[in-house]
TrEMBL record:
Biological process, per Gene Ontology: nucleoside phosphate metabolic process; ribose phosphate metabolic process
Gene Ontology cellular-component annotations: cytosol
Entry's family note: Belongs to the Nudix hydrolase family. NudK subfamily.
InterPro entries: NUDIX_hydrolase-like_dom_sf, NUDIX_hydrolase_dom
Signal peptide: none
Pfam families: NUDIX
Designated name of the protein: GDP-mannose pyrophosphatase
Cofactor(s) required for function per UniProt: Mg(2+)
Lineage of the species this protein comes from: Bacteria, Pseudomonadati, Pseudomonadota, Betaproteobacteria, Burkholderiales
Top-level division of the source organism's lineage: Bacteria
Keywords: Hydrolase
Hydrolase keyword on record: yes
Reactions accelerated catalytically: GDP-alpha-D-mannose + H2O = alpha-D-mannose 1-phosphate + GMP + 2 H(+)
Length: 198
């Protein structure tokens, strides 16, 4: 598996009537993890308005499929929503780091597992109205258990579930994390044979 993924589709010539053009802007907030930009833009009709959005370095999401068909998941508390979420292993892409390298690192750090078989699944944009964040999803197979190496201040627990169990958790509203909902639907397609990993 190489670290090459489909390029983002360029704007079509017919998109010109929808595009906004940046006039100027500034960094409104420069945090340890996130940056907030405040720009002035020209709308397609020539009027001007403001845009505030979060700059994010991007992240990876791992769909870890065990040999018995069960899926490795995490439970982790997320402060902004004051609750524990069920999620796939995931994490921020470090500066200069390739997505695949990030996925391998995050899987091992968070769960202790390594994988011998990796497939790029897709890229999703999870907050297009207020962030440039993207997430690269990977299917990981050939899993081998090991010891997790959580970051300082990171607390989570792992468990396994079948794809049908995951779908039921989505249906019941127990899984609401968007990357995990989307990853579950991809796994359903893979399990049924309707879609094949690249």
């Amino acid at each position: 598996m190489t670290d090459q993924y489909p390029a983002q589709q360029p704007d079509q010539p017919s998109d010109a009537h929808l595009r906004e053009t940046r006039i100027d802007g500034a960094l409104a907030y420069d945090g340890h993890f996130l940056k907030v930009s405040r720009d002035r833009v020209r709308l397609p009709d020539g009027k001007e308005t403001g845009r505030e959005f979060i700059r994010h370095p991007g992240a990876v999401v791992i769909l870890p499929l065990l040999d018995d068909g069960r899926v490795l998941l995490e439970r982790q508390y997320r402060y902004p929503n004051d609750r524990v979420f069920i999620e796939f292993p995931a994490g921020k892409i470090d500066a200069g780091e390739a997505s695949l390298a990030s996925a391998k690192r995050e899987l091992e750090e968070e769960t202790g597992y390594t994988a011998s078989d990796w497939h790029f699944v897709c890229t999703i944009h999870n907050a297009i109205a207020y962030s440039d964040e993207h997430l690269d999803l990977f299917l990981a197979r050939g899993l081998v258990a090991g010891e997790a190496r959580l970051d300082q201040g990171e607390f989570l627990e792992t468990f396994t579930a079948t794809v049908p169990e995951l779908l039921e958790m989505v249906k019941r509203g127990e899984i609401t994390d968007v990357k995990t909902v989307i990853g579950t639907f991809w796994l359903e397609k893979f399990a049924s044979g309707a879609w094949k990993p690249d």
